[in-house]
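Running co-folding for flavin mononucleotide.
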Amino acid sequence: MSLLNRRYACKKFKKDQSVKDEELLQILKAGRLAPSSFGMEPWKMLVVDNDKIKSELYPYAWGFHNSFNGNTRLVIILNRINMNYDDPYVMHIMKDVQGLDQDMIKPRLDRFKKFQSEDFNLLDNNRYLSDWTGKQSYIALAFMMMMAAALDIDSCPIEGFNKEKVIEVLVSNKLIDTDHYTVSVMVSFGHKDEDIRPKKRQLISSVVDWIR
Ligand SMILES: Cc1cc2nc3c(=O)[nH]c(=O)nc-3n(C[C@H](O)[C@H](O)[C@H](O)COP(=O)(O)O)c2cc1C
């Protein structure tokens, strides 16, 4: 529990202390270990260390201003689009990452197809598919923020940005392949220059129904 209370959305970061590369790598590795539907890992993390690109993002990312004012490392999480059951990426994950042989791939792919087309009705609209992969990328976001808290590093999740404009900046810098990815969410990591804010949450009884 203490770790869950340790993590909070930091609004003021120190200017004179940064997150080291090896710490950031630990955080990124935690994101990589996040669970995903059928193990498809439908994300990519962009570590933006480049000040010019950060400045270009600034006008379109109001939720990032507090982080920009301190010494933070910015990660933009992308999520896959068009990840239909017949996309070559799906086969790549099953074969090359999960090491499945043809006998195992066939039933798994059938199940994946049924899941996408019937159970979750994801194939009627491209937006459904990309919202589904986007949801999963937030699990990676949570894993990364919790890993940061474990390392005594502060973080701020960032949805305060104009998605279209941020994509434009990434495209103009050749940082995103828009045939396969869109922008999901951002997160900054640094060291707090303020007290941890105590949690304000609804009562557990307001958010949980026990069905016995
Ligand atoms: C998906 C998401 C997007 C958020 N976007 C921003 C943001 O753009 N800027 C910001 O300062 N805080 C942002 N927050 C932080 C929330 O305001 C904060 O998590 C919430 O108030 C609960 O406080 P806590 O995280 O300190 O417990 C975001 C949080 C989440 C989960």
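Result summary
The first strand starts at residue 43 and ends at 48.
The mean pLDDT is 97.
Job closed.
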